[in-house]
From TrEMBL:
The keyword Nucleus does not apply. It holds the Pfam family BTB. This is BTB/POZ domain-containing protein-like. Keywords: Coiled coil.
Length: 242
């Protein structure tokens, strides 16, 4: 019989198509399922009315990227990003607690965000409104930290997925340590898998030596994962006698 997609011949029990086309269709179906889940997640995140329906912004977020000099008020000169209380409250339980109670930020209409650049803060607020952001590796890293701090789970997952897709030999060790600090399991697993696959080359790198000095606990975890993999591989290779 002949496949209707590529006109190649196939066996009668091959589900109406050749093996290659069947596998390609299955991959496409999985991609569509993932896209649908991503869209459902985004819709769930964006539960508020469009920002166009909201009144003028009623508070400001200030980016404080470094400690201010003595006798200097950082809020008078720090770049500010306007936002709506309703948006922040609906996106972040941390902002909700801050703004629905009689805290200083609620009374003043100003929220100080420490250790963040203006561009990162602006991208963070933009995401809270749209669930969209342009990422590079630096931006993903900075936004993941903010997302964790303010418990914006959708953004954290989005950044973690991006960072996981960029894991390579050059950044695997740094990403492994970063993932540990910020409870990012998907990123941690991807980085650890790459490290244990390339132990001979990665353990001579300078960043690995720095990890040994700064956090030997993580080095122990790397070797435990590596030895476990070696044992499992050896067990699979054992040929039992007949």
């Amino acid at each position: 019989m002949w496949c209707q997609s590529c006109r190649e011949e196939y066996e009668e029990d091959d589900a109406g198509t050749c093996k290659e086309c069947y596998e390609e269709a299955s991959e496409t179906e999985e991609e569509l399922k993932r896209e649908i889940e991503d869209l459902k997640s985004k819709v769930s995140f964006l539960r508020l009315n469009s920002p166009l329906d909201l009144p003028s912004p009623d508070l400001f977020l200030h980016a404080i990227s470094s400690p201010p000099p003595p006798q200097h008020d950082p809020l008078t000169s720090a770049p500010a990003v306007p936002a709506h209380r309703a948006v922040l409250i609906s996106r972040s339980p941390v902002f909700r607690a801050m703004l629905e109670n009689e805290m200083e930020e609620s009374r003043s209409g100003m929220i100080k965000i420490n250790d963040v650049s203006y561009d990162v803060l602006r991208s963070f607020v933009h995401y809270l409104y749209t669930a969209e952001v342009l990422l590079d590796e630096h931006m993903a890293c900075e936004l993941l930290i903010l997302a964790e701090k303010y418990q914006v789970k959708h953004l954290k997952a989005f950044c973690e997925k991006f960072m996981t897709s960029k894991v390579n030999n050059e950044n695997a060790i740094a990403n492994f340590a970063f993932a540990h600090r910020h409870n990012s399991k998907q990123l941690l697993d991807a980085a650890l898998s790459l490290i244990t696959d390339n132990m001979a080359t990665l353990t001579v790198r300078e960043e690995y030596k720095e990890l040994v000095e700064k956090d030997p606990r993580l080095v122990v975890e790397i070797y435990e994962a590596y030895l476990t993999r070696q044992v499992n591989t050896a067990a699979r290779d054992i040929v039992l006698p007949h």
